Amino acid sequence: MKKSLILLLFFTIVSLAQDKKAYQLFDKNGKKVSYKKLLKETGAAQVVLFGEFHNNAISHWLELELTKDIAKNKEVVLGAEMLEADNQKQVNQYLNGDINQKKLDSTARLWPNYKTDYKPLVDFAKENKLQFIATNIPRRFASLVSKNGFEALDKLTDEEKNWVAPLPIPYDASLPGYVEMLKMMGEHTSPNMPKAQAIKDATMAYFINKNLKDGTTFIHYNGSYHSDNFEAISWYLKTYHPNIKIVTISSVEQKEVTKLETENHNKANFIIVIDEDVTKTY
Asked: What is the model's pLDDT at position 18?
């Protein structure tokens, strides 16, 4: 009997040693949380901002799994930074079966990793007759802002202004994320650079808010930097809709996933710590 217990203990220790996790979920304070808790909190929100790393396989897998699970019990609307507002017509045509994937590829500005990373989400919307909102400002308009400031958008046509948050947009240059952007880019960087980021954040928030429905959860996929630290999209959403209930998710990469590093605390309501060696999609 004693020998059996020793063997059982030995194999338990070996099993635990071999239990390598690709990711671990934490709350904003660094406490480990379960996927069940993540699902409960996100399912109760009006908006979920899923902050991803664009090339991280775990981010994309969890986006799809969480979306499927929330949709089992609640109506959802989906939307993404990776699709620009002036391509909404083509996205709708694809969702409705009026055009095929090849036609969507040739008529919409899809990201190079669309097929592997975002098509599964769009196809889930198509299969389940869900809305998928192209929330981002057309890239060429953001480029105008980076060169000439918000004033450059005043010259847009009335049709073009439909693809941008209502002008003039509120802007707080003192928000830490925008301040940090200027620091990272060096002293010779134009002050218009964070404005170009802000017009993206504002436009995504505007289209999320515009497409909210009572009793639904809007799940939005965006780069983590567009929602980290409860700024950016979150800040604009609360500007447009002060009482909105938002749950944010951030993705971070660490060498060890068992503990949230101090610098990653308070980035979001939930933080996905991903092993830094996880396969990249590009």
From this structure: 55
